[in-house]
Amino acid sequence: MIAVIIGCEVGFWVFLGLGLLARYALRMRRAGAALLLAVPLLDLVLLAATVIDVRGGAVATWQHGLAAAYLGFSVMFGHRTMRWADAWVSHRFAGGPTPAKPPAGGMARARYEWIVWLRILAAYAITCALLLAMIWLVGDPPRTEALTQFMLGVAKVPLIALLWPISYTLWPKKA
């Protein structure tokens, strides 16, 4: 299972890189768009592999939980990451405009950090929904105990990430 997760993560960056290369260096806009559209297909491959593995009788492990977290992150941050990379490559190699940066400080930066945190929270919610769906699909609590434990363990991520928006709200940097 870990090999599928790693393969999907590597595939994300490979398809993203090839898509941007085709789009800007080779000036093949359609091929670049097709490669960039293939990136979300990796999420479907990962989801299918996870469900097949667990439904096929495998005892759920932290790797199955990691696959759900990867999907949650990908849904909430994948498009944004692709847009950022596209803007950066466009600026760097095709004379495009300078990519937008987060606000430097003030309440605008605090708002930005709260929005990022809400995305993290949504990614966690998607992860939990996927894990709960797997637990329900398997229907055997001893085989899915690792998924429950993973869900509880990964709850630390939004809690720790909450420090950034709180700190920018209470002690805003000067803009």
Short description:
83% of the residues lie in helices and 0% in strands. The protein is built from seven helices and no strands.
Oligomer: single chain
Query: Which stretches of 5+ consecutive residues score pLDDT under 50?
Result: none
Order of helices and strands: HHHHHHH
Report the end-to-end length measured between terminal Cα atoms: 46 Å
Cα radius of gyration in angstroms: 19 Å
Strand element count: 0
Helix content: over 70%
Give the averaged pLDDT, no decimals: 91
What characteristic shape results from the CA principal axes?
flat
Classification by helices and strands? mainly alpha
- Secondary structure tally, helices: 7
Main beta sheet strand tally, sense and closure: none
Note the beta-strand portion.
under 5%
Walkthrough of the structure:
With 175 residues, this protein is mainly α. Helices cover 83% and strands 0% of the residues. It contains seven helices and no strands. The mean pLDDT is 91.
Features:
0% strand; mainly alpha; 83% helix; 175 residues
Describe the protein's topology.
Elements: H1 2-25, H2 29-55, H3 62-94, H4 106-138, H5 141-154, H6 156-161, H7 163-170
